[in-house]
Write a structure and sequence with these properties.
six-stranded mixed beta sheet, alpha/beta, two-stranded antiparallel ribbon, Rossmann fold, 2 domains, binds zinc ion, single chain
Length: 225
């Protein structure tokens, strides 16, 4: 378990950062959050395409190395200054998906876990897309499962994820998401990180269950499947 966040400490860090140089997260050089050469190296990193729930997933990056570091800094430490370099390519994939989809296609985000939302106070996917100029997206909702309350099993803080078998992960995730007002509509789904694909597959299931059709999934980063 990571230590509980301290608002005063975050505020202090933000003030200190105004006066101290920031170290590049890629190479440690005193610079912006990501120096010019690390930005260039990031731009050279490979994209990933895989299938999730029978739908093509376009990922802006493979989830490894510097990309993984940047996403963890964004999601766990609230380093919003790294959203730009990651978000541009994510948003570009959403725009391309929309260009190839039927008119009227909607973009829906996979919601963050309740735990992640409480800890961060912002939705990383909203930020990533906004940095790339994509705004006004909708999102799926967390479903209340009788007896289990609001489920949030994803993310690095989701205790026990790694220890569970693939089947147990799927069983624990089915029914946790819900889509509204997608009857007869085409949908592009977006999430930040896709690893096992269980959460994205549940998002696909939720859209289909509500009468919609998922034409593409987009992620900022994905592991190889
Ligand atoms: Zn650097």
């Amino acid at each position: 378990m990571p230590p509980a966040p301290h608002p005063w400490r975050d505020a202090l860090a933000a003030v200190v950062a105004l006066f101290l140089p920031v170290a590049c997260l890629g190479c440690g050089a005193p610079d912006r959050a990501l120096c010019r050469s690390c930005r260039a190296a990031l731009a050279e990193r490979p994209r990933r395409v895989r299938l999730v729930g029978g739908v093509r997933l376009d990922a802006a990056f493979e989830y490894e190395g510097l990309v993984r570091t940047l996403l963890l800094e964004l999601k766990l430490r609230g380093r919003v200054d790294v959203a730009g370099p990651l978000g541009h390519r994510t948003a570009a994939l959403v725009r391309r998906a929309l260009a190839e989809a039927p008119p009227g296609t909607v973009v829906l985000r996979v919601p963050p876990s309740p735990r992640g939302r409480r800890r961060r106070g912002f939705d990383p996917v909203v930020l990533l897309l906004a940095r790339g100029g994509v705004r006004g997206t909708g999102r799926l909702h967390r479903a209340r499962v009788p007896g289990r309350g609001l489920l949030g099993t994803r993310g690095p803080a989701g205790a026990g994820q790694k220890e569970r078998t693939a089947l147990e992960r799927v069983a624990a995730t089915v029914g946790t998401l819900r889509a509204d007002r997608v009857q007869g509509r085409d949908v592009v789904l977006v999430d930040d990180v896709v690893t096992t694909g269980v959460t994205m597959a549940e998002a696909v299931r939720a859209v289909r269950a509500a009468g919609g059709r998922v034409v593409r999934c987009v992620a900022t980063a994905s592991v190889e499947s």
